[in-house]
Design goal:
- The chain is of the alpha+beta class and 91 residues long.
- The chain has a domain of 47 residues.
- Helix content is 65%, strand content 13%.
- The protein is built from five helices and two strands; from the N terminus they run αββαααα.
- Helix 3 packs antiparallel against helix 5 and helix 4 packs antiparallel against helix 5.
- The termini are far apart.
Length: 91
């Protein structure tokens, strides 16, 4: 990786860490990076969370590749988030 890309990635990691320390989540969507309080983010329905994180099943299956099997865990994350939200609603 070239030095400029590495520097940009390190700066991005730093911004994300700083925002996390402030109680915010940073996520990327079609319009770029977004920041919001994590409490606001998780207050939305599970399908909204998964959509914002590009981790809903439709997106995950579309991006699935044999070179990077991370998509398998992304599907598991979607299932876990939905179940956790369901359990929260029951409580």
């Amino acid at each position: 990786m070239n030095d400029l890309i590495m520097e940009t990635m390190n700066e991005l990691k730093q911004v994300i860490k700083e925002q996390n320390a402030l109680g915010n989540i940073v996520f990327a969507d079609i319009d770029g990076l977004k920041t919001m309080p994590i409490s606001d983010f998780i207050s939305q329905p599970s399908d909204g969370i998964l959509y914002d994180l590009n981790r809903n099943e439709a997106t995950t299956y579309a991006l699935a590749s044999t070179e990077d099997i991370r998509w398998i865990n992304d599907i598991a994350v979607a299932q876990t988030i939905r179940e956790l939200k369901k359990q929260i609603e029951i409580l």
